[in-house]
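Wait, mind explaining this?

_____
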Amino acid sequence: MTALDNAYTRVSDFKDMEAELIETRQHLHANPELSFEETETSRFVAEKLESWGFEVTRNVGGHGVVARMTVGESKKSIGIRADMDALPILEETGALYASKVPGKMHACGHDGHTTVLLGAAQHLAKTRRFNGTVTLIFQPAEEGGKPSGAQKMIDDGLFERFPIDAIFGLHNHPGAPEGTLLLRSGPMMASSDTAKITIKGKGGHASRPHLTIDPVVVACNLVVALQTVVARNIDPTQTAVVTVGTIHAGEAVNVIPESAKLALSIRSFDPRIRDLLQERITKLTNSVVEGFGASVEIDYERGYPVVVNSEEETAFARTVAEELIGTDKVSTCHLIPGSEDFACFLEHKPGSFLRLGNGMNSAILHSAKYDFADASLTVGAAMWARLAERYLA
């Protein structure tokens, strides 16, 4: 054991708190609330933080909770964020603590994210081994789409009201061993954009197609053409995804409809690639549709940005993680095509988004059979506590 081990939080410091962490996590799991509905969750979080001596501000950007504690005279401040909302999914885990609310469940592990930050908060309030200000951000509506909880908190003056120098967050990671940590500098998670396309043709009787402009045929040709956007416009060393998620047209077998609608999910890891995708999808759609004599309306919406971790903060977090659990349990995360509104925070402040192992056999995120791994709670809580102590040493 080194002097550094004694000076800062260790995982073993949470051994006596482990049962309490599990109880908290399972309570949150059993009582899920959807995006923009996190009334009881935010109350539960705020009351715990207040009982430990934090200065707590409620209703930031909706149901957001911000807790601050200052020790010493340093002006330095670290921000750490956890998300709180659940998903509209009917749970199928069979757990004793399964959701009590039919059709709602914590299928993405936000119950675990909230719990590990609460555990770190309790420990930091007790030990107070830091010099500066710890700012804990409990965010609503990460799953809410645009505008998400992160953007709403920013719009509500998050960084002006609660100044911080850097911000950190984490997400659990199915497929990685429990209690491990994954980090990546630079782009890590994809931007997520959508395009809703309405093709307007000329309807008519199915037996007289020559008198119509069939939007179904146009839509099918467009789906095929869109597959070339990534294959023939994007540098093969870059990563991008264009998925046609829905296509709707017609109601009757003997009727050629007036219109067809498509919806696309578009993802990338580079702002320039993001711009190119929008340009090519828009131009290709217009040209294909016009070639068939139809007309088109395109509603292209930019969603969450790319999660771009700053180099210095990621290197610092990796050092802390390796000190805490050893280099063999810390690895480099691969690019993740999923999106995360923590990216909005990183557009304003330097920081890093980490991944916490949820088990090799964990169900995938957003699955009705998913559950957060309680075995990862102490590592997650210790990581946040030690990171705060080291940042505010």
Q: What stands out?
A: The chain has eleven helices and 16 strands.
